[in-house]
Amino acid sequence: MTTDRREPATDADERTMLEGWLDYHRQTLAWKCEGLTDAQLRTAAVAPSTLSLLGLVRHMAEVERSWYRRVMAAEDAEPIYYSDEDPDGDFRLTGADTWQEAYATWQAEIEAARRIAAGFRLDEISRGRHRRTRERYNLRWVHTHMIEEYARHNGHADLIRECVDGATGD
Fold first, then answer.
1. pLDDT at 6
2. 44: which strand partners?
3. CATH second-level architecture of 14-165?
């Protein structure tokens, strides 16, 4: 797999710009994971942290699912990797956890997010509420938050990848 990262056009309208930057950051996380073995993807950068590239992908699958399925569409989408008893379960990996499964799950959540977002205007308020804040959000806010979430975790991914095999890059 070779990840194709493209920055959005510099003259795009607001929605195209937001969705373009969101896709760019999704592609960046995939790129940071590219070419590594499952063992390397499970490698935590710095003890005692358990933060790994595979954990980040699993986490972002959960984040996509939460904001688009649960909040925007009000779907009853149960967590995939975490629970109330283990709120950090997306980051807790076992030998049975694989890149193939995590990547497929993440991509399915991205596709669901795109499908759901296509049914909303940027200023349209979500059908569901955030499980902790109980607030509703418009799609513009959710897209902006997702860009921030990916950008922050892509910074983590940069450091983890460098620790795993020395690879660097924006």
1. 86
2. 52
3. Up-down Bundle (1.20)
Looking at the chain, how many residues does it have?
170
Residue 78 token pair: 């149960």
* CA dist list (Å): 32 to 16, 49, 52, 70, 123: 24, 19, 11, 28, 32
Amino acid residing at 164: V
d(CA 35, CA 72): 34
Sequence letter at residue 122: L
Q: Phi first, then psi: what are they for 25, rounded to 5°?
A: -75, -35
Which tokens is 152 given? 């922050």
Instruction: Give the tokens for residue 76.
Output: 């009853």
Residues 6+ apart with CB under 8 A from 144: 18
The tens digit of pLDDT for each residue in 69-83 reads 999 999 999 999 999
Partners of 52 in the β-ladder? 44
Residue 42: enclosing H or E segment and its boundaries?
none
User: In terms of Cα–Cα distance, which of 7, 8, 4 is closest to 31?
Assistant: 4
* Residues of the chain falling short of pLDDT 70: 1-2
The predicted model scores a pTM of 0.95
Between the alpha carbon of residue 165 and those of residues 72, 75, 85, the distances in Å are 38, 40, 34
Please spell the DSSP secondary structure of 3-28, one letter per residue: ----PPPTT--HHHHHHHHHHHHHHH
